[in-house]
Amino acid sequence: MATMIAAQQLDLVTYIASLGPTPVPAATVPDHVRQLLPLRPAHWQRVVSGIPMDETYVYATPLWTGVVVDTIRHRAGSDMLCRDGTVTRYQGDYGRRYRLVLMSLPDAIALNERWPLLPKQSAREHWPLLAFATTDQIDRTDTRVLLQGMARETA
Predict the structure, then answer these.
(1) Residues 8-58: pLDDT tens digits?
(2) Which residues contact residue 87 at a Cβ distance below 8 angstroms, ignoring those fewer than 6 apart?
(3) pTM of the full structure
(4) What's the pLDDT tens digit per position in 92-101?
(5) In the chain, where does DSSP find H-type helix?
(6) In sequence order, what are the residues at sequence separation of 6 or more whose Cβ sits closer than 8 angstroms to the Cβ of residue 118?
(7) Which burial class, exposed, middle or buried, applies to 7 when counting CB atoms under 10 A from its CB (0-12, 13-18, 19+)?
(8) Fewest C-beta atoms under 10 Å: which of 2, 11, 67, 142?
(9) Residue 8 burial (CB count, 10 A)
(10) Among candidates 44, 151, 71, which has minimal Cα distance to 108?
């Protein structure tokens, strides 16, 4: 009897080992993070609702004028939401579709305290893009120091 149980256990171990590694799904930014972004007009919200949070970045610059508040970049160019609710389209090629939410440094610092942002260098941008972390269990200090340093550089 003990031999039969041992054989069954060995068969189970062999079977489990034969399954191989199971692919782990890539971590994604939770969609509820979208609620932390500034409110936009309904027509713009409909357009950006199809852009995943993994393709949404914060662009904070000390030189931000506040005229353009949101941008969608894509292969045909970019669509820019202006503060007054109008959308302006520019031609160009950004290679892929993604969203930039423009904001002031203090607003970016406050957002980083609510959900961690991670600097992402981009050859197209003078200032770093800030990507949303996939979890809120990340130290926010480096991004806070980066943003505060950017504010001091231009003060």
Answers:
(1) 555 665 666 666 666 656 678 888 888 999 999 999 999 999 999 999 999
(2) 43, 44, 79, 80, 81
(3) 0.78
(4) 888 899 999 9
(5) 2-18, 42-48, 105-114, 141-154
(6) 130, 131, 132, 133, 138, 143
(7) exposed
(8) 2
(9) 10
(10) 151
